[in-house]
UniProtKB/TrEMBL annotation:
<protein>
    <recommendedName>
        <fullName>High light inducible protein</fullName>
    </recommendedName>
</protein>
Amino acid sequence: MRQYFIDLRTEELRGKTQAFGWTPKNEISNGRWVMFGLLVGMLTEYATGVDFIDQLKLMVSYLGIVDLD
């Protein structure tokens, strides 16, 4: 029980001093967005038959970032 309150106080202090960076809340959020992106990529691969790497190549080509032929 003592460790719980120590961790709670540490999180409180960390939350007040750090607005950006490697906080547990940010890491959970980033991980969820990555999992969502991979899920969308896999579903698109299943629906279109184009693999994930080729989807990325097409995306950067269509956006004009890289000229791939």
